[in-house]
Amino acid sequence: MPLLLMLTAGAVTCVITYVEKYTMFEKLVALFVVLVIFFVLGSVLKWTLDFFEKQNEERLKEEGEVIEKEAEEGGEEKPEEKGRQKSS
Question: What's the pTM value of the predicted model, to 2 decimals?
């Protein structure tokens, strides 16, 4: 994700600096600054999305454990099973 964002911003920067007829040095400086900024932004975005993904996975895992514990502790017969025993 960070690389795609960075490369897209770099391509846009190249086109803009070419159209505006910047000198080669100005083009390179602008490109470098844009690449660094968008790489950092992309890395922060990736870290944030990974953080939320990890929280969601932990929450789902905890909910699964709670359901399993309730099923084990329940030990009660289902209503269908109670009816079958009475008719036998």
Answer: 0.61
Q: How far is CA 9 from CA 4, 6, 25, 77, 78, in A?
A: 9, 5, 18, 62, 61
What residue type is assigned to position 15 of the chain? V
**Are the beta carbons of 34 and 13 closer than 8 angstroms?**
yes
User: Residue 60 is inside which H or E element, if any?
Assistant: helix 24-74
Per-residue tokens: 39: 């790489």
Q: pLDDT per residue over 19-66, tens digit each?
A: 999 999 999 999 999 999 998 998 999 999 999 999 988 888 877 776
